[in-house]
């Protein structure tokens, strides 16, 4: 029997100063002044249509992702929050994260963000090495990266994440560790340290850069993980590391098959309707100009997750977590009993990839070979 | 129906890229066989694979009406022939339906060995061969020299050979005039009872079995009751006509004519190639000499990736073998790959094409094992066994003698590449038999183990001579040789489908390069995979595919779930195409690794 899981809100801001060659998110180069006011109005109208899916729940977390959400002014956010609060109930301990890119940092703006209730920043540093920043096509340089972090702290963000990439073109173990060291010096509460992968529909896909060999990648990975562990970071998800208790609530909700409304151009959502015994995935119109066009609908896609896919879809994210998820949560949120996936679970246990007690979670080997583990849950 | 003396049946003998297809397209155009709109380049090569690779595999025919300069209209039946060294058997079949052949030679490149061999076949079969010098549009064309070469190598007078360019259209009508004037009309008795030869048969899913036939005597009409000489079965003729090259019903084929027959024959063995068709009313007519059955030169195991496909695979082979008498197959059971078929092919190209046709036309996923030739093994009891499968080689202890097939190779090569080619022949354990300097080319005769010839000799020869050398080869005899079986063990388990037979001297070198190649092809898995090459119990080479240390997992938040799922699915599809040997997953390509090994 399906239960209603916690509800988060994702808000997409689809503009960047420039599109990075590795980025496959829905981001568009900003041309001239951003239509902030129109966009905020559209977001709220979009949300109005989704309110039917709230079903009495309070909002557990909000995430402003992009694109570059820090391109929008504090005034824009002020208007937006006003509208959000009129429509939704925020949980008392709500986590509100905003993604920010160095190069968009101004002291005043960030102080104002903080005042509005944004209580977590995720800063897209990617690297401190000038050569790597350049290869990644980032608009910021090393100085701006350092300045951004300082400024964020000064503005009152004591809970912040730094995004760092590794496995960069020509990267050595020393360079990767140096990036981590410099980040650690700022005592972030959270580090997203993820490997550069080449995704379809990106500039890098068309003109692939020369990436380090597999063995070099693994050396980087091992050295980096050791360093993060030394500094007391909890490696709680494939590429997410946090200080104790500082895991991203919002992302945890994704990974544990929680619900989320997605508003903004190209935003995805996932919604459970317990009474109808159905789970939907939703998508909003992708292009900013369509999103802003009152003649076009916001919602462009709504698919029911097919019963045979629910188990996989839940575990595909759940098993990214070192601690996986509670078996109870798995059952409540998928409407399945664990029995429904008994066969792949048994096979995974036999291969030493999975543990099940009160929780269902990957073994160390399962974390290493996550793809092999998840492939077991694919139905024909 | 045309009068006998207004019919000309002919083939074209030409090397792969000497312009046969372009020339035949020109003929069709001159005779108005197709409208411009229908005129697709190289119409006769109808199989996808043929067009893609630019080669002809199967015989096809086209009937054209040519209005000659003398004002008379002639029916020209052109029977296309394949040009690759693997398919000489098909050539002689096509030739048997003709009274003459055009020998088309590239006026810039000169004669090539396969054409020489086919030309001899044509002359032996009593055909009038007319040389034609093509590609006169090329600046480097040297027709006098090439004409001299034709005389020296083949012994045909080429002084008045038509000089044309199929590409530019130069002198195309002269070729047809020469053909009409010099190739004799067919002989036969229109009033005698029916006697017709099946040149080719193929299976059409709408029509059933379609046969390309040549009427020798009498005539055949729609509605006739005919009898197949070999099966003794009677069939009603449902359809009869010609290829223009479109299938065009005419209701009747007369003496000397070439065309198709559809006879409501559902069983694919009902109209075997080379069979004689007679009238059910007058069945006491002699069978025409059929075709000599060719022996396959190369054998390989073909296995469906999914065992559910076995029945479909068997059906597909049955259908393919109907119009490819050279394709041999029998069930094979491999420990590693399950149930499949051991198939015999004319050569490597033939094997590739059959595999491609099976995968494409019959939608099968197949694993092919490394090809091998057939070996003669004498055991201690003095019995002679023929071994076409390395894993079936008896225990060395009971073997008295092993013999490998030797091929006589005729190679034509321009003088400047002679050194390279001789070096290659020696590397391939060849023994020189003869060497003749003629015109601009040297004619070499070598005896080379067939195993070396069928693997990559042809490709190597081409690259050693910038594509100019040409090759024709025939099996001559079995000869004793120190042969051994090289086994491949994956994590200690012998994989029968990976065994190869080779010369003892090559074992270490090939064992090492084979294991290295396998290492490249086998993806890293969750554990180390040891690959060993062994001769009996003696390991001659080993490598290890190091365990995958971890999967690369991209970051994933709410949005990208469906893409992530597709990625997993794709991964799983990829795995389906691998074979599980013990706990190790081995991709198809690894089974052919032995071919990719550079010496």
From TrEMBL, chain B:
UniProt-listed Enzyme Commission number(s): 3.6.5.n1
Pfam families membership: EFG_C, GTP_EFTU, GTP_EFTU_D2, LepA_C
Principal subcellular localisation of the protein: membrane
Protein's membrane topology: Peripheral membrane protein
Reaction catalyzed: GTP + H2O = GDP + phosphate + H(+)
Residues where GTP binds: 17-22, 134-137
Subcellular location: Cell membrane
Span of domain Tr-type G: 5-187
Cross-referenced InterPro entries: EF-4 (IPR006297), EFG_III/V (IPR035647), EFG_V-like (IPR000640), EFTu-like_2 (IPR004161), G_TR_CS (IPR031157), LepA_C_sf (IPR038363), LepA_CTD (IPR013842), LepA_IV (IPR035654)
Function noted in UniProt: Required for accurate and efficient protein synthesis under certain stress conditions. May act as a fidelity factor of the translation reaction, by catalyzing a one-codon backward translocation of tRNAs on improperly translocated ribosomes. Back-translocation proceeds from a post-translocation (POST) complex to a pre-translocation (PRE) complex, thus giving elongation factor G a second chance to translocate the tRNAs correctly. Binds to ribosomes in a GTP-dependent manner.
Family assignment from sequence similarity: Belongs to the TRAFAC class translation factor GTPase superfamily. Classic translation factor GTPase family. LepA subfamily.
NCBIfam families recorded: lepA, small_GTP
Name by which UniProt lists this protein: Elongation factor 4
Source organism per UniProt: Thalassolituus hydrocarboniclasticus
């Amino acid at each position: 029997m399906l239960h209603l899981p916690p509800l988060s809100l994702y808000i997409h801001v689809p503009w960047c100063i420039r599109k990075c060659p590795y980025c496959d998110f829905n981001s568009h180069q900003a041309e001239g002044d951003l239509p902030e006011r129109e966009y905020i109005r559209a977001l709220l109208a979009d949300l109005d249509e989704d309110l039917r899916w709230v079903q009495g729940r309070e909002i557990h977390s909000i995430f402003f992702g992009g694109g570059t959400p820090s391109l929008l002014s504090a005034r824009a956010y002020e208007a937006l929050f006003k509208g959000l609060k009129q429509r939704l109930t925020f949980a008392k301990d709500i986590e509100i994260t905003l993604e920010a890119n160095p190069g968009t940092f101004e002291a005043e703006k960030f102080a104002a963000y903080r005042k509005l209730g944004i209580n977590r920043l995720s800063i897209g540093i990617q690297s401190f090495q000038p050569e790597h920043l350049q290869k990644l096509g980032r608009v910021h340089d090393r100085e701006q990266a350092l300045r951004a972090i300082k400024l964020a702290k000064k503005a009152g963000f004591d809970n912040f994440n730094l995004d760092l990439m590794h496995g960069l073109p020509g990267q050595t173990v020393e360079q990767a560790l140096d990036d981590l060291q410099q980040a650690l010096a700022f005592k972030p509460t959270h580090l997203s340290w993820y490997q550069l992968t080449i995704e379809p529909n990106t500039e890098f896909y068309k003109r692939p850069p020369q990436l380090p060999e597999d063995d070099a990648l693994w050396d980087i990975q091992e050295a980096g993980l050791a360093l993060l562990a030394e500094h007391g970071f909890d490696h709680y998800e494939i590429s997410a590391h946090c200080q104790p208790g500082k895991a991203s609530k919002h992302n945890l909700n994704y990974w544990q098959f929680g619900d989320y409304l997605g508003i903004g151009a190209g935003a995805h959502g996932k919604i459970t309707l317990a009474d109808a015994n159905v789970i939907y995935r939703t998508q909003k119109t992708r292009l900013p100009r369509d999103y802003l066009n009152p003649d076009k609908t916001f919602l462009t896609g709504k698919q029911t997750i097919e019963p045979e896919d629910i188990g996989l879809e839940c575990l595909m994210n759940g098993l990214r977590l070192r601690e996986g998820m509670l078996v109870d949560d798995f059952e409540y949120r998928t409407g399945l009993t664990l029995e429904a996936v008994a066969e792949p679970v048994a096979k995974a246990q036999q291969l030493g990839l999975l543990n099940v007690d009160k929780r269902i979670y990957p073994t160390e080997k399962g974390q290493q070979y996550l793809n092999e583990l998840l492939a077991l849950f694919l139905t024909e | 129906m045309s009068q006998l003396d207004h019919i000309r049946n002919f083939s074209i003998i030409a090397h792969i890229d000497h312009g046969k297809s372009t020339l035949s397209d020109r003929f069709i155009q001159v005779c108005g066989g197709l409208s411009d709109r229908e005129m697709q380049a190289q119409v006769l090569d109808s199989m996808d694979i043929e067009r893609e690779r630019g080669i002809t595999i199967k015989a096809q025919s086209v009937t054209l009406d040519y209005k000659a300069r003398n004002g008379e209209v002639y029916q020209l039946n052109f029977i296309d022939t394949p040009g690759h060294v693997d398919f000489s058997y098909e050539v002689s079949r096509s030739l048997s339906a003709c009274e003459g052949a055009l020998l088309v030679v590239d006026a810039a490149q000169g004669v090539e060995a396969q054409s020489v061999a086919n030309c001899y076949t044509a002359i032996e079969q009593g055909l009038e061969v007319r040389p034609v010098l093509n590609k006169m549009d090329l600046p480097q064309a040297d027709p006098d020299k090439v004409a001299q070469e034709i005389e020296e190598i083949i012994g045909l007078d080429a002084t008045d050979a038509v000089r044309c360019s199929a590409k530019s259209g130069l002198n195309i009508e002269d070729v047809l005039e020469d053909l009409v004037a010099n190739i004799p009309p067919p002989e036969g008795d229109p009033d005698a009872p029916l006697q017709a030869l099946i040149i080719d048969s193929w299976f059409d899913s709408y029509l059933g079995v379609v046969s390309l036939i040549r009427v020798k005597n009498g005539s055949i009409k729609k509605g006739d009751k005919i009898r197949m000489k070999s099966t003794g079965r009677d069939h009603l003729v449902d359809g009869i006509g010609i290829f223009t090259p479109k299938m065009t019903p005419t209701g009747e084929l007369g003496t000397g004519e070439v065309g198709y027959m559809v006879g409501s024959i559902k069983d694919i063995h009902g109209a075997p190639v080379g069979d004689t068709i007679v009238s059910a009313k007058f069945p006491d007519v002699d069978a025409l000499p059929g075709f000599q059955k060719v022996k396959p030169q190369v054998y390989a195991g073909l296995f469906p990736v999914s065992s559910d496909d076995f029945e479909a695979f068997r059906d597909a082979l049955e259908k393919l073998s109907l119009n490819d008498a050279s394709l041999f197959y029998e069930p094979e059971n491999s420990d590693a790959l399950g149930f499949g078929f051991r198939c015999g092919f004319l050569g490597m190209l033939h094997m590739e094409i059959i595999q491609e046709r099976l995968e494409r036309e019959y939608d099968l996923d197949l694993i092919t094992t490394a090809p091998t030739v057939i070996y003669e093994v004498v055991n201690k009891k003095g019995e002679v066994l023929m071994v076409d499968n390395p894993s079936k080689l008896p225990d060395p202890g009971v073997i008295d003698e092993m013999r490998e097939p030797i091929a006589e190779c005729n190679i034509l090569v321009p003088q400047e590449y002679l050194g390279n080619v001789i070096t290659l022949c020696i590397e391939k354990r060849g023994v020189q038999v003869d060497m003749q300097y003629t015109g601009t080319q040297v004619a070499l005769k070598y005896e080379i183990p067939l195993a070396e010839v069928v693997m990559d000799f042809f490709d190597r020869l081409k690259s050693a001579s910038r594509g100019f050398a040409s090759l024709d080869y025939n099996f001559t005899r079995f000869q004793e040789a120190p042969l051994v079986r090289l086994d491949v063990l994956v994590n200690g388990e012998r994989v029968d489908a990976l065994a190869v037979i080779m010369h003892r001297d090559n074992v270490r070198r090939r064992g090492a390069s084979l294991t290295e190649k396998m290492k490249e092809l086998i993806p890293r898995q969750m554990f180390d995979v040891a690959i060993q090459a062994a001769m009996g119990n003696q390991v001659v080479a080993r490598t290890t595919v190091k365990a995958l240390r971890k999967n690369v997992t991209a970051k994933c938040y709410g949005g990208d779930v469906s893409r992530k799922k597709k990625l997993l699915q794709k991964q799983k599809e990829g795995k389906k195409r691998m074979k599980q040997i013990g706990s190790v997953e081995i991709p198809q390509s690894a089974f052919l690794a032995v071919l990719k090994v550079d010496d």
